[in-house]
Design goal:
Number of helices: 14
Bound molecules: iron/sulfur cluster
Radius of gyration: 20 Å
Strand content: 15-25%
Order of helices and strands: EEHEHEHHEHEHEHHEEHEHHHHH
Distance between the termini: 60 Å
Shape: globular
Length: about 280
């Protein structure tokens, strides 16, 4: 089995038990052996990941107390949050919300209960103006007490030089993030496997995985953008985006994200000026 090194974070299904020193995100459902998983991974367990169906199962939520869990949220899962709110508060949930017609409803609901949210960047399209509404909600809702990612990290990057881009926020940093499918294929993430692009499978050695064509493609992606004079090289938002949005489809519309980056950068700069101003006053 692939010996993923200590600096890696590997997203695995609940029937795969990786050895070694890597951290893991384990995909679970109501039938998953939670006790066996937590016993096997101990401190190597970064978090669980599940669909909103998990919210309907009291016993599953009880067994997840104290653990961080990423839950994909659709509008049909909102009632279950209300039903199990108390139990859910014993876990550390982050709701993953796709960009579609129900996004604002889901975000409003989850953040209204002070649960953090992460919108799924890859699910957006130009026809879909939802991103603009999400940004307005994030920037102008005075009642918001929890972060909406990846917007929060991207604005921090401008204001404080945190140095993250969409590859980091979407857990697709080629140096550290890996994904193992139910059929044991290894790739960067689910979206790459959906396109049948993989590094190999879990019977391959680490050396073979990192020598694979796809891994090398990811490792050299930025340099190749410049070599090939990709339009992304001339984009003013290359730093926060990293050409993530067009990595699978070079002609994918991204104008809506450009508008978002522009506003986030402007707000980030305002914050940066304020921080400097107050730091200067403190030293007087
Ligand atoms: S916003 Fe679009 S054009 Fe700009 S770097 Fe990202 S994918 Fe490329």
């Amino acid at each position: 089995m692939t010996d993923f090194p200590a600096h890696t974070l590997v997203n695995v299904p609940d029937h795969v038990f990786l050895k070694g020193r890597c951290q893991v995100i384990v995909r679970i459902d109501k039938t998953s052996p939670i006790k066996k998983i937590t016993t096997h991974y101990k401190k190597r367990l970064h978090c669980f990941q599940a669909s909103h169906e998990i919210l309907k199962h009291t016993a599953s939520l009880e067994s997840l107390a104290d653990y961080k869990i990423r839950i994909t949220l659709k509008a049909s899962g909102l009632a279950a949050i209300t039903d199990h709110e108390e139990l859910l508060r014993q876990t550390r949930p982050v709701f993953l919300v796709p960009l579609d017609k129900n996004t604002i409803k889901c975000i409003n609901f989850a953040t209204g209960l002070n649960f953090p949210v992460h919108i799924v960047a890859e699910t957006s399209s130009d026809k879909n103006r939802v991103l603009k509404k999400v940004l307005e909600f994030y920037l102008h809702n005075p009642l918001l007490t929890v972060p909406i990612e990846p917007l929060h990290t991207l604005i921090q990057t401008t204001a404080r030089g945190a140095g993250f881009n969409l590859w980091d926020t979407e857990l697709e940093n080629w140096k550290s993030d890996f994904f193992v499918s139910d059929r044991l294929r290894v790739s960067l993430s689910g979206r790459w496997l959906d396109q049948k692009k993989s590094y190999g499978d879990t019977t391959d050695t680490w050396k073979k995985i990192t020598a694979s064509k796809l891994y090398q493609h990811h490792a050299n992606y930025k340099q190749n953008l410049f070599k090939q004079k990709s339009p992304c090289v001339f984009c003013p938002h290359l730093a926060p985006c990293g050409a993530y949005l067009r990595a699978l489809k070079p002609d994918k519309p991204c104008e809506h994200w450009k508008e978002t980056f522009k506003k986030l950068e402007a707000e980030g700069l305002k914050a940066k000026k304020l921080i400097k101003k107050y730091e200067a006053q403190e030293t007087l």
